[in-house]
Amino acid sequence: MGIPTTQFPMIELSRRQDGSNDISAFARDVAEGLRQPRKTLPSRYFYDGTGSRLFQQIMELPEYYLTRSELEVLTQHKYEMAQLFSRRGFFHLIDLGAGDALKTRILLQGLSGQQKEFDYVPVDISGDAMRQLSDNMRQQLPQLQVEAVVGEYFQALEWLQENKPGRKVVLFLGSNIGNFKPDESINFLRSIRSYLSPGDQLLMGVDLRKDPATILRAYNDASGVTAAFNLNLLHRINRELDANFKVDQFSHHAMYNPQEGVMRSFLVSKAEQEVYIQKAGLTVHFDSWEAIHTENSCKYTIPQVEEMGRQCGFRPETVFYDNRQGFADVLFSID
Ligand code: AVJ
C-alpha cells in the first residue's frame, strides 16, 4: 500500500518469451562480440543507469552539437510540423526511445498551441523513465492524453497495431538511426514500415556530413565525458556479468571516416592482458593495442536519407534543417 501510482495508464510489455532473461541476453551478446577476430560490443548496452546519466552530460557538452541542433530544428519548425501531422485529423504520436522527451516537448507545444487532436504514446525500454515522464506530463500538460509503453520498439509497435487503431505519426529522433550499419538501418526502417499504413508518417532525426574536425570533437570531448561513457561499458560488464576488466588498462579512441560518413568508437587495450567474464563463461585475451569496436555513429547526406526511406516504402515529404544545415529532421509519408 501507499505507493502513489501514475494516473495515466502505462503498458509494460512482457520480456522475451523464449525463457531467456536480460542478463543471459547481455552475456550472450558480449561473448559473441568478444569472440570475433575483430572484437565488438553492441552500443545499445551503453545505457544502464550510469551510462544514461553520462549520455545526459554528453548532450550538454559544448562539443556535442547534435542535441542543440535538433532542438533548434524542432523549435523553429514545430508549427509547420504540427500542421503536417494533423492534416488528416486525429493521430497517435508515437515516440520511439522517448527517454525524458526533452525534444518531443517542443513538438507537443507546437501541437497543443494549435489545438490539434492527438494522443501521445512514448515508448522506451526503461520503466523508470516512462513512469517519470508520465508523472511530469500529468503536471505540465494535464490536458494531454498520454499512454506510455515500456518495451522494445517492435514489441510496442505490434501492441499498438492490435490495441490502438488509427493513424500513426512515428518519431525517431536524435540520430539514433546512425548507430545501425547500413543494412541494419534498412531492416529497421522496413520493420517500422510493416507496422504502418497509408496516411501514416515518420519523422526521423539525422546528423549530416560536415567538417570532420567538428564531428571528431563531438565524440572526443576535452573533458573526457565521452571516454567515460565508452569505458562505462566495461564497468557494466564487470558489475552485471562478474567480469574483471581493469578499466584503467583501456582507453577511448574515436575516429571519423569522411568518405563513408562513419564515426567509429573503440576501447583500446593498453597492454597484453586476460579478462575473465564469469557469466559469459569466457576468458578473453587482448594483445597490447588490440581494440574493441563499440559504436558507429553515421553521418548522412540528404539524398542518401531520402533514398534509404524510399527503399523502405516511405515517401520523403519535407526536410527541416537547423540554421547551419548540420542536422535535419526528415518527414516521410506513406502513400
Ligand atoms: C544517442 C546514438 C545519437 O551516436 O551521437 C554520443 C550516442 N555516443 N556520444 C550518437 C553517443 C557517443 C549518440 N546517439
Automatic annotation (TrEMBL):
Coiled coil (UniProt feature): none
Keywords: Methyltransferase, Transferase
Record-level Gene Ontology MF annotations: methyltransferase activity
Residues of the Histidine-specific methyltransferase SAM-dependent domain: 26-332
SUPFAM superfamilies tied to this protein: S-adenosyl-L-methionine-dependent methyltransferases
Keyword Transferase included in the entry's annotation: yes
Keyword RNA-binding: no
GO terms for biological process, alphabetical: methylation
The protein's name: Dimethylhistidine N-methyltransferase
Organism: Pontibacter flavimaris
